[in-house]
Every structure is written in C-alpha cells, then in structure tokens.
Amino acid sequence: MSKYNAVERLLEIQEELSALGNEARNLMREHFPGLAEQGDAYGAFTFGKSWNRYDTTLETLIEETEDYEEEEY
After folding, report:
1. Which of 37, 39, 47, 61 could form a disulfide with 17 if both were Cys (CB 3.0 to 4.6 A apart)?
2. What is d(CA 62, CA 14) in angstroms, rounded to the nearest whole number?
3. CB 28: neighbour CB atoms within 10 A?
4. Among residues 72, 69, 73, 52, which one has the least CA distance to residue 10?
5. What pLDDT digit, counting tens, does each position of 17-73 carry?
6. Cβ-based neighbour number of residue 47 at 10 Å
7. Contacts of 67 (CB under 8 A, 6+ apart)
8. Closest CA to 9 of 57, 68, 22, 17
C-alpha cells in the first residue's frame, strides 16, 4: 500500500468513526437521554477528534501526514 493510499484509508476510517459516534449518540439520546447529555458534555461520542487543540488524535495525525511526507524529500 502506498502512503497516498494509506492516507486515503485513514481518512475513510475517520469518517467511519464519526458515523459510529453519531450512531452511538443517537442511541443514547433515544434510550438514555441523561447519559447522552453527559456524554455530549465530555465529547464521549467524538472518536478520533478533540476540542482541545493540544490533544494528539487520529485527526491531527492524519493532518500531519502532509508534513511527514514533505520531510522525506
């Protein structure tokens, strides 16, 4: 697998994680609304991302692949 293909797959995984987080949020809202509110407050349904710009997440690592590729040349 090329680096380009790896990055493309990583982006797909990030999208899948986002969809799964939304699905989990919706299930919690439907069946456990109080817990869903708590989960939303703490970002429990946000997989691979963070509101804290200093956190290392899958999203930030994917963004850094551009810098990584530039360093190799």
Report:
1. 47
2. 9
3. 19
4. 69
5. 999 999 999 999 999 999 999 999 999 999 999 888 889 999 999 999 977 766 554
6. 19
7. none
8. 17
Model pTM score: 0.80
Q: What is the DSSP string of 3-57?
A: HHHHHHHHHHHHHHHHHHHHHHHHHHHHH-HHHHHHHHHTTTT--S--SSTTS--
**Which pair of structure tokens corresponds to residue 56?**
């290392």
Q: Tell me the residue length of the chain.
A: 73
35 is written with which tokens? 């817990």
Tell me, what DSSP letter sits at residue 72?
T
Between CA 21 and CA 15 the distance in angstroms is 10
Distance CA 57, CA 48 (A): 5
